[in-house]
Amino acid sequence: MGDDKKTTSFQKAINLVNLAKAEDENKNWTEALKYYENGIEYFLLSIKYDNIPNKTKETIRSKVKEYLDRAEQIKALLSNQKNKKPVKTGNGNAKDDESGDEDDKEKKKMMSQLEGTIVLERPDVKWDDVAGLEKAKESLKEAIILPIKFPQLFTGNRKPWKGILLFGPPGTGKSYLAKAVATEANNSKFISVSSSNLVSKWLGESEKLVKSLFEMARQNKPSIIFIDEIDSLCSSRSDNESESARRIKTEFLVQMQGVGNDTDGILVLGATNIPWVLDAAIRRRFEKCIYIPLPEEKARCHMFKINIGKTPNNLREEDFRLLAKKTEGFSGADISVLVRDSLMQPVRKVQTATHFKKVRGPLPNDPDTIVDDLYTPCSPGDPNAIEMTWEQIEGSKLLEPIVTMNDMLMSLSNMKPTVNEGDLVKLKQFMETHGQEG
Domain range spanning residue 149? Predict the structure, then answer.
């Protein structure tokens, strides 16, 4: 099935280019440009995914270059035609400013497209909600909070960081840390965007989206641009990558460098699990690379407490410490899943119980009211056991069993850490070469 799709891509490219040539000959420039651009995209897809001999690929590349040149010529031609049309201005004079209007329309289109996909959020995550990662927090405060609160500290050659890369195993809290940044930086606009939001199938549109993203940040200064999974947008450049991918990286470099652009008051915060695939030039734009490691024992203990929260339980401090010891190699996400599974154990007890007993306790929907006729699961050997199932109990008469250490250990026995040992080695090597411990 995949082969059929590939063949269709290649054939589609040929068909589109033939249509482009026909429209070109008939001087239908707008249609010709559209067909050229679409045809080029399909040719690039074909080079990337089709099983085509290298010699043929070279031929296709030279043709693509030819079609690109022609597309650029047509763009210039259309632009000249537009500029020749007089447009009335407010004072009644004719002025050749239609090109500027078209640029404004294009910019508005890109902005609205971005606004539909980015998240201008204000999450409720405080620094204290992030377990451990003290060095990472300090670096982020230094880059974001202090320049806003004490601008007098950052004058002359002392300037705040403009690019910070958070890297580490999946599930260690990179995105969560970014949410804490968004909450704590009260005066900053937090622009959260996924790499997929900046990639378009239309030729030339992706780099315009990148440009518009930074333009939006400039209009909302001070602002933070958070790009999750930045590796999918800015991986190393290679000979066999598509022209569109190369142009996205170039635009990203230009915007981050700030050549001809004002980057004061803008921080780019990137997150990745595989920093070694990032393009070297992009990596250099991130002045600080902070390693977000797997949580240490103390941080894991804090994570268990945060995740259990106010759910009724009888766990003691030593239980939390024991759980932290037993979860060496677990990420924050792993611990979150483990606790969620443990919190389901009381529900499973209710579902599988064959006997219940009457107990005294608070009403589920009114904790301040204590009654004597609530039911809770028990073993058949309990002296007060009544043989019945949960279906026979009125909804407001069930007293939920509390979460116990046994529930936690039962869930732990069925879980393994998800982080790959090989990736950990690579991440530590990258940290030693390019980054710092978070």
Answer: 119-294+431-437
